[in-house]
Specification:
- The protein has 258 residues and is of the alpha/beta class.
- The chain has 12 helices and 9 strands.
- The chain has helices at residues 22-28, 31-44, 63-70, 74-78, 96-104, 119-124, 131-141, 160-173, 190-196, 205-221, 235-240, 250-255, and strands spanning 3-7, 51-55, 85-89, 107-115, 146-153, 177-182, 185-186, 225-229, 241-243.
- Strand 5, helix 8 (160-173) and strand 6 (177-182) form a beta-alpha-beta unit.
- Helix 8 packs parallel to helix 10.
- The structure holds iron/sulfur cluster.
Length: 258
């Protein structure tokens, strides 16, 4: 699949989640600039893209923001240079009106930043929603789009039972695809303060690999696409990492049998 990524950093987010590095993300690029550069690039390119994909932020935070982001790409869809649009958003920023707008704007894939199915963990992360909101959002989007669930492991207040439950529950929901991420402590986050004050302990590398392998095998055996395991290596991540189970080839370690 040929995907053109557009990064929104923190744009549209109602609050800051404890693990999210808003400050550094904002240093990367404002969303308006990302959109303008993407349009210029696609215009010049001879390639056909399966999807333009918006990552980061909360693109569905308002109908006007959806329109600001997606309208500029509609001519490419009409000209068959782009086949569809993918976006990643929070489960509590979706309702019937938003879903109707996404359908109108030719969205093909919706990634839900679920992170956890435990209400206690979601509260500890400052996510601002609960498992029931995730289920409502999932039911809303499932009939219209390919749905990808993003799940994290090693979040504050998380127990082994929560980790097992998240994997089993995801298998039961049977989304189109999954991304699975061990939690990392990044600079300038609430999680960094929790870690330094002794209130949060990240997973060890062995624990992160164990849970990621369990998740990967469970999803694959259930016929669910695993789009990503662990964060991709990047200069940004190396600069901002404080603690946590990170290694550049994490995904390969999980997929290997050794
Ligand atoms: S919703 Fe996503 S982008 Fe926004 S603060 Fe939370 S983790 Fe960061």
């Amino acid at each position: 699949m040929r995907i053109y990524p557009v990064f929104l950093s923190h744009a549209g987010c109602p609050q800051r989640c404890v693990f999210c590095n808003q400050h550094a993300a904002e240093k990367v690029k404002p969303w308006q600039q990302s959109v303008e550069e993407s349009i210029a690039y696609i215009e010049k390119s001879n390639l056909v893209y399966d999807e333009v994909a918006f990552y980061g932020g909360t693109p569905t935070s308002s109908l006007s923001f959806i329109s600001d982001l997606l309208e500029p790409f509609q001519p490419f869809i009409e000209a068959n240079k782009v086949r569809g649009i993918r976006l990643s958003t929070r489960p509590d920023e979706l309702d019937k009106t938003v879903v109707a707008a996404l359908v109108d704007y030719h969205v093909t894939t919706v990634e839900l930043g679920v992170e956890s199915f435990s209400d206690e963990v979601l509260d500890a992360c400052g996510r601002g929603y609960h498992r029931s909101d995730v289920l409502s959002a999932y039911e809303l989007v499932k009939p219209h789009f390919n749905v990808v669930l993003q799940i994290m492991v090693g979040l504050p207040k998380e127990t082994e039972e929560d980790r097992r439950f998240a994997i089993e529950y995801t298998v039961d929901l049977h989304p189109w695809g999954v991304r699975y991420f061990p939690t990392l402590v990044l600079r300038n986050t609430v999680l960094e303060k929790m870690y330094k004050d002794g209130y949060y302990k990240p997973l060890s590398m062995d624990e992160a690999i164990h849970w990621s392998k369990t998740a990967y095998n469970s999803f694959k055996n259930a016929g669910i696409r695993v789009l990503q395991v662990g964060l991709h290596s990047s200069e940004f991540l190396t600069d901002e990492l404080v603690a946590g189970p990170y290694v550049g080839n994490f995904g390969e370690l999980v997929r290997s049998d050794f």
